[in-house]
């Protein structure tokens, strides 16, 4: 019996372990940290052996194949040891895809992928498709393959998940954009990160489709390096040569396979960045045969995603917005660009090799004040303090919200759009956003 060892006991890892056990493998799961109680219960329910609080080498290095959770970096000691032993290492997505014939609509990009994935799933559900939501959002693909029988999956893919995918094939591959992110995981080499994103094209055939933003300079440059067999489906903010979807004279347009036309002002999501997300989602659904009327109605009715430009409350004439999902500079750029009032901007967290030059001018022209929120805010002080704006240095969400309250004036916006990962002070991006919302509602 082949032995599979799963490294990582979160949603991805536990789902992979359950699927492997159901497929008859000898399965062992190991986590260097603590496995959450409900995941422990799931592993015990399925009779899967597991450990946490560290890896036992003799129980890991006898594997025929390793399934690695995406949060584990390649330079982790146990990963290095597995490589030295020549044990193949794959992702949960790669493993799960072996056991389903469902059509895969896969979405990646530095920004916008959660919104686009959620919107695409919303459209498919409205159309009555038998569809699952997976990847970097929702339940793990492996667990759904083990327990459900979907005909379609809409999957959000991070660069970390793409890193260990080899035979996986996306029927519709969506690449929204590529901007600097996670450079700390890629040896601070942008090309390494770009190469990871471009892996979404792997194994596509002439029967598949590649949906991408044709105005992204990095994507345009990279496409020249690839022999692409799939049908190219570029989108653009405006009508131009080659684009099959765009905004033209106030209308949202998709040219093919089925022409779709609606008023831009009817789109549920506002902001330039959301134009791209809605075009990508509409094309993807159109390619998969969703009725055009359903696509239009779904684009009108979608409510957005939590922690992405989420209006929290208006307190004494000040609008508070939670954009905790803005974990890189480009995401903050689009958030700031959409601000219509003087803004108190919250920045900070675990820096991933950020270059803040991209938002310098927007900060100068749109921000009333800056509130730094992080364990170490020195890099923010060094870059932004010379702009001459009022600043506050905070190391907890309570102090941060109080500082924003003190700075903001009637008619202003307080925007949590941190540019950084959350792991210095918070469990994750969601925890950061939830704490912000709870404290704002107590003002």
Topology:
Elements: E1 3-7, H1 11-22, E2 26-31, H2 37-45, E3 49-52, H3 57-60, E4 65-68, H4 77-84, E5 89-90, H5 92-97, E6 103-108, H6 113-126, E7 131-135, H7 141-147, E8 152-156, H8 159-163, E9 172-175, H9 190-198, E10 209-213, H10 217-223, E11 231-238, E12 245-248, E13 251-254, E14 260-263, H11 272-287, H12 292-301, E15 310-315, E16 318-322, H13 329-337, E17 343-347, H14 360-366, E18 367-373, H15 378-384, E19 391-394, H16 397-407, E20 413-416, H17 429-441
Parallel strand pairs: 1-2, 1-4, 2-3, 4-5, 6-8, 6-9, 7-8, 9-10, 10-11, 11-12, 16-20, 17-18, 17-20, 18-19
Antiparallel strand pairs: 12-13, 13-14, 15-16
Helix pairs in contact: 1-7, 6-11, 6-12, 11-12
Structure description:
The chain is an alpha/beta fold. The chain has 3 domains: 3-90, NAD(P)-binding Rossmann-like Domain (Rossmann fold, 3-Layer(aba) Sandwich); 94-301, Mur-like, catalytic domain (UDP-N-acetylmuramoyl-L-alanine:D-glutamate ligase, 3-Layer(aba) Sandwich), CATH 3.40.1190; 310-441, Alpha-Beta Complex (Protein-Tyrosine Phosphatase, Chain A). Helices cover 35% and strands 22% of the residues. The protein has helices at 11-22, 37-45, 57-60, 77-84, 92-97, 113-126, 141-147, 159-163, 190-198, 217-223, 272-287, 292-301, 329-337, 360-366, 378-384, 397-407, 429-441; strands at residues 3-7, 26-31, 49-52, 65-68, 89-90, 103-108, 131-135, 152-156, 172-175, 209-213, 231-238, 245-248, 251-254, 260-263, 310-315, 318-322, 343-347, 367-373, 391-394, 413-416. The strands form 3 sheets. It has a 9-stranded mixed β-sheet with strand order 7-8-6-9-10-11-12-13-14, with helices on one face. A hairpin with a 2-residue loop joins strand 12 and strand 13. Helix 6 crosses helix 11, helix 6 packs across helix 12 (292-301) and helix 11 (272-287) packs antiparallel against helix 12 (292-301). It is globular, with a radius of gyration of 22 Å. The N and C termini lie far apart (60 Å).
């Amino acid at each position: 019996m082949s032995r599979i060892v799963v490294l990582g006991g979160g949603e991805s890892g536990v789902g992979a372990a359950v699927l492997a056990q159901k497929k008859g493998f000898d399965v062992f799961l190991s986590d260097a940290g603590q496995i959450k109680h409900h995941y422990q219960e799931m592993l015990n329910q399925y009779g899967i052996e597991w450990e946490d609080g560290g890896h036992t080498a003799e129980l890991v290095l006898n594997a025929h194949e390793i399934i690695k959770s995406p949060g584990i970096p390649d330079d982790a000691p146990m990963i290095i040891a597995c490589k030295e032993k020549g044990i193949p290492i794959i992702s949960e997505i790669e493993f799960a895809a072996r056991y389903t014939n469902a059509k895969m609509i896969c979405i990646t990009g530095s920004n916008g992928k959660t919104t686009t994935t959620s919107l695409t799933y919303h459209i498919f559900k409205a159309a009555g498709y038998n569809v699952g939501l997976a990847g970097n959002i929702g339940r793990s693909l492996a667990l759904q393959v083990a327990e459900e029988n979907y005909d379609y999956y809409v999957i959000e893919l991070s660069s970390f998940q793409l890193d260990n995918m080899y035979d996986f094939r996306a029927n519709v591959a969506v690449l929204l954009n590529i901007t600097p992110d996670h450079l700390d995981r890629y040896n601070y080499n942008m090309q390494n990160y770009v190469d990871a994103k471009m892996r979404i094209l792997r194994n596509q055939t002439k029967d598949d489709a590649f949906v991408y933003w044709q105005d992204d300079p990095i994507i345009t440059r990279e496409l020249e390096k690839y022999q692409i067999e799939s049908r190219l489906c570029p989108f653009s903010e405006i009508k131009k040569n080659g684009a099959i979807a765009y905004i033209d004279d106030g209308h949202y347009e998709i040219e093919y396979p089925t022409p779709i036309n609606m008023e831009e002002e009817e789109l549920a999501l506002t902001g330039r960045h959301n134009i791209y997300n809605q075009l990508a989602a509409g094309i993807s659904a159109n390619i998969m045969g969703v009725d055009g009327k359903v696509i239009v109605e779904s684009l009108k009715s979608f409510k957005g995603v939590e922690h992405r430009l989420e209006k929290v409350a208006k307190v004494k004439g000040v609008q508070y917005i939670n954009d905790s999902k803005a974990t890189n500079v480009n995401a903050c750029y689009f958030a700031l660009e959409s601000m219509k009032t003087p803004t108190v901007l919250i920045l900070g967290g675990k820096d991933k090799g950020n270059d803040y030059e991209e938002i310098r001018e927007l900060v100068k022209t749109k921000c009333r004040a800056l509130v730094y929120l992080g364990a170490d805010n020195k890099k923010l002080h060094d870059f932004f303090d010379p702009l001459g704006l009022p600043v506050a240095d905070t190391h907890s969400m309570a102090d941060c919200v109080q500082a924003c309250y003190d700075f903001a004036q009637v008619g202003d916006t307080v925007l949590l759009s941190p540019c950084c990962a959350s792991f210095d002070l918070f469990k994750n991006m969601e925890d950061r956003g939830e704490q912000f919302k709870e404290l704002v509602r107590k003002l």
